């Protein structure tokens, strides 16, 4: 949710932002509704004041009682109209996208994202490279067929040493983040509609959500939803900011419209697992902590020995709630390309306005800014398999994970 004062004071800025972001919101209609609402609100407040004044005279003035009765009828009708105007205005305003940072590049798809830097050396092989699907079958650590049998296509099992590898990866990641000042959470895997709306997933990504029938609940698509929602309708102590939270959860997304997009294997699935970084900070510090989260992501990938590049995400690939976003794409030998493994978004006060999360520090007060950044997902495990494979199909475990796996290599299963 953006500050409606900006709409009133600088409507051209909002129009240009909507046009650049492809938003269908009719800004002129929204402005007209806002004007009508504020005018009617003024009239309602005058009627309320007059009603209260006359009510004090009713005991000694029969005429006042008649006036109060008439005022109540008029007031009831006006308040009903006021509520309908507010609902209509809020419904439109809910679709207004966040403003953009000055350096967000133009473009429509991820192909238009701007590369900022490459890090690491792309592996070279003197044998035919296998993708993670082939490796998973050879090593007997990924089972998509039984995942489809038990659930449906897009669900899968990590098995044996594969499950040990990913659990080690996620445990190690959480430990590293705790060492960097993050508080560890275990969160619900379900959230109310209010929470999904407040974090910006509704109405913008409604088609990605698994909603429970006859319940005001949906499976979370990320622990961002439950971690940011944790402080809904609260005033945070500004002296304690930033608050840095992290959680590991399963995540559920329908992936509507994603058919054919790197769908082989488990790169794009309905259930995956993720460690998230969430930061609540003062507005003047959100750029700093956006970069802080990016540094954490890069550190983790470097420790795993995964080559990657960082991209500044273009406007067409940046979700409506985001102000600025970085993606890190790791190298996948099986794809022979860079593919996204983490996303890191500065949401400024978009979420905190919708969820009413404020801060107070002496005379300083306002809405907090939020940062939502992936720390680790299963995709990094896929990249480890593809980039660390050997000619016989075995996979070398990154050194930092070996104390947690208890083994250095995953060997093919003899059949």
Helix content: 25-40%
What portion of residues belong to β-strands? 15-25%
Number of strands: 17
Specify the structural class: alpha+beta
Question: Which term fits the overall shape?
Answer: elongated
Distance between the termini: 57 Å
In N-to-C order, the SSE pattern is HHHHEHEHEHEEHEHEEEHEEEHEEEHEHE
What's the alpha carbon Rg, rounded to whole Å? Answer: 26 Å
Number of helices: 13
Largest sheet: number of strands, sense, barrel closure: 8 strands, mixed
Low-confidence stretches: none
Strand arrangement, major sheet: 1-10-11-12-15-9-8-4
Averaged pLDDT: 94
Give your account of this protein's structure:
The model has no long low-confidence stretch (mean pLDDT 94). Strands 1-10-11-12-15-9-8-4 form an eight-stranded mixed beta sheet. Strands 7-13-14 form a three-stranded mixed beta sheet. Strand 13 and strand 14 form a beta hairpin. With 415 residues, the protein is of the alpha+beta class. It has 13 helices and 17 strands. It starts with a helix and ends in a 5-residue tail after the last strand.
Task: Give the key terms.
single chain, 415 residues, alpha+beta, eight-stranded mixed β-sheet, three-stranded mixed β-sheet, 13 helices, elongated
């Amino acid at each position: 949710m953006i500050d409606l004062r900006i709409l009133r004071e600088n409507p051209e800025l909002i129009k240009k932002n909507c046009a650049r972001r492809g938003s269908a919101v009719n800004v002129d209609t929204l402005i007209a509704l806002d004007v009508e609402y504020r005018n009617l609100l003024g009239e309602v407040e005058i009627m309320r004041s007059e009603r209260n004044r006359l009510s004090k005279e009713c005991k000694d003035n029969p005429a006042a009682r008649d006036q109060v009765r008439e005022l109540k009828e008029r007031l009831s009708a006006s308040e009903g109209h006021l509520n309908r105007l507010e609902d209509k205005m809020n419904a439109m305003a809910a679709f207004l996208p966040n403003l953009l940072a000055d350096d967000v590049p133009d473009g429509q798809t991820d192909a238009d994202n701007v590369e900022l830097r490459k890090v690491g050396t792309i592996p070279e092989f003197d044998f035919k490279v296998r993708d993670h699907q082939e490796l998973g079958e050879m090593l007997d650590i990924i089972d998509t067929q039984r995942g489809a049998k038990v659930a449906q296509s897009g669900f899968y099992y990590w098995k044996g040493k594969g499950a040990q590898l990913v659990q080690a990866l996620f445990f190690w990641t959480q430990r590293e983040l705790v060492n960097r000042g993050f508080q560890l959470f275990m969160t619900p895997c379900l959230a109310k509609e209010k929470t999904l709306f407040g974090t910006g997933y509704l109405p913008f990504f409604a088609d990605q959500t698994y909603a429970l029938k006859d319940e005001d609940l949906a499976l979370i698509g990320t622990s961002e939803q439950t971690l940011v929602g944790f402080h809904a309708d609260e005033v945070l102590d500004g002296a304690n900011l930033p608050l840095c939270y992290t959680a590991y959860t399963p995540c559920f997304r329908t992936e509507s419209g994603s058919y054919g997009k790197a769908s082989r294997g488990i790169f794009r699935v309905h259930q995956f697992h993720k460690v998230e970084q969430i930061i609540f900070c003062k507005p003047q510090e959100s750029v700093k902590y956006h970069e802080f989260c990016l540094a954490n992501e890069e550190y983790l990938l470097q420790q795993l020995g995964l080559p990657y590049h960082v991209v500044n995400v273009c406007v067409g690939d940046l979700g409506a709630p985001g102000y600025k976003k970085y993606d890190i794409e790791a190298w996948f030998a099986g794809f022979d390309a860079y593919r996204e493994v983490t996303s890191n978004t500065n949401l400024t006060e978009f979420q905190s306005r919708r969820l009413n999360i404020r801060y107070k520090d002496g005379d300083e007060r306002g809405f907090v800014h939020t940062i939502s950044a992936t720390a680790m997902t299963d995709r990094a495990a896929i990249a480890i398999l593809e980039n660390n494979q050997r000619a016989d199909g075995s996979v070398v475990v990154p050194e930092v994970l070996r104390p947690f796996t208890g083994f250095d290599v995953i060997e093919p299963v003899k059949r």
